[in-house]
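Reviewer 2 asked us to include a model.

Predict the structure of this chain.
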Amino acid sequence: MAKSKSDIFTPRTGQVIQAENGTQYFVCGNNRIKISEHFAAGGKPLGDLIVDVVRHTAEKAAST
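Predicted model (structure tokens):
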């Protein structure tokens, strides 16, 4: 069965489920991704983490 354009472009929202053994998975459609890392509740916002990665990469590239 072919997918219609509305099926292809309709955004899907996922959900987090927890298996009996405590492992968490992000599920969206037929995809299931094991969650192995978490951000600290009181940690830096994602934008700040991205800035740190860019700065670190730039410093590393400049030093080589």
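The longest helix spans residues 46-63. The first strand starts at residue 15 and ends at 18. We have added this to the supplementary material.
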